[in-house]
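Give me the fold.
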Amino acid sequence: MCRVCGGTVHQFFDFGRQPLSDMFLGPGDLEHEFFFRLAVGICESCTMTQLMDEVARDRMFHDAYPYHSSGSVHMRRHFEQTANRFLDTHLSGRGPDPFIVEIGCNDGVMLRTLGKAGVRHLGVEPSGGVADLARANGVRVRTDFFEEPTAADIVAEEGTADLIYAANTICHIPYIGSIFRGVDALLAPDGAFVFEDPYLGDILDRTTFDQIYDEHFFFFTVRSVQAVAARHGFEVVDVERLPVHGGEVRYTITRRGTRTPTAAVAELADLERARGLGTREAFDPFAADIERIRHELVTLLRGLAAEGKRVVGYGATAKSATVTNYCGIGPELISFVCDATPAKHGKLMPGSHIPVRPGEALADPYPDYAVLFAWNHAEEIMAKERAFHEAGGRWILYVPEVHIV
């Protein structure tokens, strides 16, 4: 049943048994590893694409949650630019004490810039470890899940918000109705709710199937976001395509009738209708491409292993869990994955149990090939690891197709 409208959800792909994508375990913890069925479908009524099964939020977002939003130079710049843009737009002219709430602020990389500018702010972040990092950088944080009761508490303590923002967060939340009811309770009458998440159109165009994992419950289009917004008295008044994370859309939502939608909203909705992006048939080529990429990637890795080539991975990302487990890739094909996050070092990749080592391990010594799981940061990573390529190393990528660089 659709988590937005209660309609029928038709499954279009099943990735089978998958682990929690960000649960990196020690060798002695494997017997307690949690698995679930990762399958995805589309609602025939509101067109919302979503997972068929839900993983309990406490299993995914907890004190040891390892992802840091500020871990990439590119993403730090993106969030600094976003904050400065808000200062010039949504927070400008809002009186002497504008107030912003960020849902899922992570380590506070965006709010940090606003805090330095003197803007009253509050991050709502359920993962205690990253919330503590935000506080250490001067960001005000409430360690909690955002939903309707949370919003009521914030209003009682802080008053209404001029702007509510979220990045790579709303798509994580199956109980989206409670989110919108919370936004309705917290947002000032003429305020804006702005969020950015991976765009389904880009996922299909680039066959970035690894964007589908436990934490990504919804896969948005402007039409599906319009559907959920309308059910709660809101409307989409602007959309902006973003290049980050393989392609996202930033949605600006306000109460119905308070602002005139920009032409960009109708243009993107028309484009989605023209390509059939609300129909089951739109996913048939995508499913075929996923199976083709799996075959080509596994064939390549097995061939390199047979030739005695040494292959490692780069970036112990949440996305890589889908790839390694769906493709059946283990330590026999990729000896280890290097990653910059200290909390992952010495642990094993979810499900595949490939060891995770520090970034410096790439040069100890350089391997023949490296599978770039963090493909969304390819330019930044390849520039940083230029010595690997100069030493004769080659990158293996699988987006939008399997190829060697």
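The mean pLDDT is 96.
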